[in-house]
Design a protein that fits this description.
By secondary structure, the protein is of the alpha+beta class. It has helices at residues 2-12, 22-34, 54-70, 102-105, 117-123, 129-139, and strands spanning 19-21, 40-45, 51-53, 77-85, 88-95, 144-149, 153-159. The strands form 2 sheets. It has a 5-stranded mixed sheet. The protein has a two-stranded antiparallel sheet with strand order 1-3. Bound molecules: adenosine-5'-triphosphate and magnesium ion.
């Protein structure tokens, strides 16, 4: 219900704008959340001057981390990476889980869409996490990328747009 309300709010209002350092928000969010997940979380964070709406970034990270955990074996590792690719900071959440087929890839961002409804009933959830992530990423004029191989794992990534990177004043 909280997720549904959140999507409705995002449809109609600008989320309260509070921009914070991407590096800081990622480090804090992952550190706080990892203790509640069975998997090992690794962080490889290249320092950036990027800023992002902190509430939105937290929500993106929590939704992607909760999926990475829910759809992976407990023995898996979840990697959170910030890397500079083509001069642009790129945030990636990668897991070693069940993966998503090409057919499902085109649907997982739809509200209430869940792969394999019978099995996913056991894991719980309502199919709104990725709709929220996509909405928040698009709101910041970026795009969410998904790469996945069934049985191997899934990687979600997005680039921080140029306008959210503070210029050095030297
Ligand atoms: P909610 O996020 O609302 O609790 P949910 O996790 O089912 O529920 P989404 O986060 O929107 O919903 O994901 C939609 C579907 O995409 C999931 O039900 C799952 O089948 C698939 N999926 C999402 N992330 C992954 C992942 N990392 N690995 C494998 N499948 C995934
Ligand atoms: Mg989810």
């Amino acid at each position: 219900v909280e997720n549904l309300l959140q999507l409705t709010r995002m449809d109609h209002t600008e989320a309260t704008l509070s921009y914070q350092s991407v590096d800081k928000v990622i480090r804090e969010t992952v550190t706080n959340y990892e203790t509640s997940l069975p998997q090992t979380i690794t962080m490889a964070l290249t320092p950036t001057n990027a800023y992002f709406n902190s509430a939105n970034l937290q929500q993106i990270l929590l939704a992607l981390l909760s999926n990475a955990s829910k759809y992976s074996p407990e023995s898996g590792t979840v990697q959170v990476t910030v890397a500079i690719q083509n001069d642009q900071p790129t945030i990636t959440i990668a897991d070693q889980g069940i993966g998503i087929s090409d057919v499902d890839k085109s649907h997982v961002f739809e509200r209430f869409y869940r792969v394999d409804k019978a099995r996913s009933r056991q894991t719980g959830g309502s199919g709104l996490g990725l709709a929220i992530v996509k909405h928040a990423v698009n709101h910041h004029e970026s795009r969410l990328h998904i790469e996945s191989t069934v049985g191997k794992g899934t990687r979600f990534s997005f680039v921080i747009p140029e306008r959210l990177i503070a210029k050095n004043s030297e």
